[in-house]
Structures
1.
Amino acid sequence: MTENGAIGVFDSGIGGLTVLRELLTRLPGESFIYFGDTARVPYGTKSAETVLKFSRENVTFLLDQDVKFIVVACNTASAEAVPRLQREFRIPIVGVIEPGVRAAVRMSKTSKIGVIGTAGTIRSEAYQRGIKEISPQAEVTARACPLFVPLVEEGWVDTPTTEMVAESYLGEYRKREIDVLVLGCTHYPLLRDVIGRVVGERVALVDSAVETASEVQRVLEGEHLRNHGGEVDFTIYLSDIAPDFKQVGERILGREIPQVRLRLV
Ligand code: DGL
């Protein structure tokens, strides 16, 4: 492994482009290979065994591309598969849970923390356990918000319907007086405005994408794998290419996507 290799990133679909967006901003000089498993999305509703199986396949594919480092952008895969993947593969692998956990504990003054994610992420209790490990007195209220992913994929990021759904999922957080809410899903940073309005401005929102990018930078530097001099470049592979991918993907990534390659699963 040399510092010149690309960084591999995988997600269940295209929501992980929120993580790629942060990585591209924070790590100039690096090149990235992104794999979105769009043929098998969502992972959030599947069993832990299935998510682990798909995640192993995704890591193997990225290793075949000679990546030097792997970022698991998907919260569900991070919650249900990353500890196993770290034991099974020799390449450094970073998921989004630990960076999100650390940021939540750092930012909370009252130790009342909310966590939202897919059904799989919440069921795994990875965030809840992680927070309690470093802050045993923390009061964590976790909630699955399964309708958020399809709303974002439809582009309904700030509509009255989205606001209504957010209110019914998150209204109770106002009573619980949390001061930090972890957006524990690739898609949720895109709903930041609506979520922020519903929970109120006193509540700080933890964006795992931002936190993960800084963790990746730290680990790359620690392992002497940081490439400062390369050309910024990214290649996107998907297991199914929807006709509107370019439009939706560019909105999430915030930059043009020149080309996308198909990798059948
Ligand atoms: N990428 C998933 C996550 O962050 C959301 C979409 C899915 O359910 O696969 O948990």
2.
Amino acid sequence: MNTVEVETPGGSYPIHIAPGRLDRLDECIPADATAIALVTNPTVAALYGARAEAALARTGRKIVRIELPDGETHKDWQTLNLIFDALLEQRLDRRAVLVALGGGVIGDMTGFAASVYMRGVRFLQVPTTLLAQVDSSVGGKTAINHPLGKNMIGSFYQPVAVEIDTDVLATLPAREISAGLAEVIKYGLILDAAFWQWCEDNVQALRALQPEAVAYAIRRSCELKAQVVGKDERESGLRAILNLGHTFGHAIESGLGYGQWLHGEAVGCGMVQAAELSAEVHGFALADVQRVRELVAAIGCPVMAPDLGFERWVSLMMVDKKSTAGEIHFVLMPRIGQAETRTVPHAALGKVLERTVQTTP
Ligand code: NAD
Ligand code: GLY
């Protein structure tokens, strides 16, 4: 088993990475827990609900299963409230523990619910998509979407542990694997040129879910994310680089309507756009833009963005948590393995959108 430690002012906890972790969830429930709420969705419940429940049952605690509708379109207030309804109806107290069993949507909503239910109860992340295993379950960002902007309502709230069962990736559709790989390669691009190169060299093994390659990619991603979050839990500076490609990507997601493109697909395409912008204003080599485009295509994500119209692109990108005083801030690279946050002239943005948007004849 690989273990990565996350240390933040808001809480320190282990990330355990191994096949079969799902069958050992009882080991992660704090001894003083009074009850367990297993929050999941019907897709994940059908595959892994019974196994997770069987493991949790060994604690001898009452278990309440809460199934939320599946999908990004349900990451909203109405669905969040279903968690509170169940917790209150079942009279779970403030020593109850919430367990998020699912992808990033379930993890983000369960974490947010845990952060505000009775002013805060403990929760465990059990991420079942590659994207959630390498990114969303780590670092304590929780949120729901608003029709006007992605992840706009949420909190920073750390889990008590992250339990990554690498076996569960076997049932994940190929498109979801590609989306998760977008977040994996992101870490190389912003923080670790050697890891970027390793991803280029191992992309087919990763897409085929070759066990050693996947285990290494998950561990390295978690290590890199833990390093950043450990230095800047609440995104007062450094942590913003983890949003590479997200300013463009979030505009795609909210501009097309949540769920049309997967989050990871939008981030993958957004990284190509960020690479183009980095070349335009930050000296990023054109040969490296091509490497980014080729690796994003090789993991199976789109490299051309949808045509939302320039004005709409700009107004969508303004609704971003990195925007301050009416200015959009982009994560840009001077070279592979380094990143920083900058504002850019509108003219440069216009040129990049012209080059990266798929126009219909
Ligand atoms: P998701 O949660 O919608 O899961 C994708 C699909 O896979 C769903 O239909 C789900 O039911 C299904 N699924 C999950 N596990 C499965 C399995 N093992 N086998 C088969 N199907 C399975 O999407 P996601 O890509 O995991 O997460 C995207 C969300 O994460 C977005 O809302 C994004 O904003 C958020 N996110 C948050 C952070 C953060 O730091 N909190 C970081 C990145 C992304
Ligand atoms: N996914 C970006 C972050 O956690 O900060």
